Amino acid sequence: MKTVKSKNYIMQYVIYTYGLFGLLPLTLGAIATVLLHGTPLVMRWLTAIIAWTPTYVFLLMFKKLYPNSTIKSFYKEAFRKKLNIRLLVITTIIQIAVFASSVYMVSIQRSVRTISLFNFSFFTITSALFFTLIQGATGEESGLRGYLLPAVDEKYGVVKGSLIVSLIWAFWHAPMWFLNTGYTGTDLIKYIIVFVICITSLGFIIGICYHYCKNLFVPIWIHFLFNFLGETFIGSMVDLVVWYAAFYFIIAVGFFLWHKSNHMGNKEITEPRTI
After folding, report:
1. Considering the domain boundaries, does residue 186 fall inside one?
2. Which of 31, 155, 178, 196 has the greatest count of CB atoms below 10 A from its CB?
3. Contacts for 47-53 with beta carbons within 8 Å, 24 or more apart?
4. Model-level pTM greater than 0.85?
5. What is the pLDDT of residue 266?
6. Residue 158's domain spans which residues?
7. Is residue 9 part of a domain?
8. 117: which DSSP letter?
9. Rounded to whole angstroms, how far apart are CA atoms 153 and 160?
10. Domain for residue 248, yes or no?
11. Banded pLDDT at 12 (limits 50, 70, 90)
């Protein structure tokens, strides 16, 4: 679906999304703390509500972005393309392997049994499944990958566009670094650095995959699986994200080379040979 060709709308969307995401934790967080006593369950619901910020802004700006369309038509088109099952299976295997490898490396680093870093209890799995379904993946992808990624790709190309949107996505989480992690000092700096590398790499992978299967379910699934697997880990998140950053960066480079190889192959097919 084509967007209105205006850099101002892209910038407006990013600015409004950042601004609203900075405002909501302060206002809703204060309400949740004062009126609802800030229990873990209340804060979990608060996180789910705030996670939809990219979609809130997208829906509010929809008529500017798609003046000749409707929200119903947008979502119908967003999920219309046939799913690439092979791509979904491969990315799923990769993500599970990255998660398992990262936890294993943490267990070696901390000299503990790998199994002790997992929590597969019924309550944890059902809670993680429910909240992961209603927050990050479903709440963010309509705006970030449904609108923003195609708009930026159209201007800068697939590789640069995927990288730009991935960086936007990574730094969009900035308020959570200070409000939600509990880290301070050098631990916080370390967490921010590896988080940005990890999320930028993951976002780049999502961007490349979305290029090859223009169905919004693809970024939603990759995002969902990333969040869900992380919910079963009970060790130090900064330790986990350090390894995430390393593995996902390597895989992002691999996806870049794969895309470049496909792009060069397509050029050789489409371009006439000269004698």
Report:
1. yes
2. 196
3. 47/131, 47/135, 47/180, 48/131, 48/134, 48/135, 48/139, 49/24, 50/21, 50/24, 50/25, 51/135, 51/136, 51/139, 51/140, 52/135, 52/139, 52/140, 53/17, 53/20, 53/21, 53/24, 53/139, 53/140
4. yes
5. 66
6. 81-270
7. no
8. G
9. 7
10. yes
11. very high
Rounded distance, CA 77 to CA 66, Å?
13
120 part of a folded domain: yes
Separation between Cα atoms, residue 265 and residue 253, nearest integer Å: 18
Tokens 């699986």: give the residue. 225
Report the C-alpha gap between 63 and 170 in whole angstroms.
27
Spatial CB neighbours of 64, under 8 Å, sequence gap ≥ 6: 4, 9, 12
212-271 tens-digit pLDDT: 999 999 999 999 999 999 999 999 999 999 999 999 999 999 999 999 998 776 655 445
Q: What single-letter amino acid sits at 60?
A: L
Query: What whole-number distance in Å separates Cα of residue 62 and Cα of residue 60?
Result: 6
Mean pLDDT estimate for the chain: 90
Domain tally, the chain: 1
Tokens of 265: 């192959």
- Coil, strand, or helix at residue 50? helix
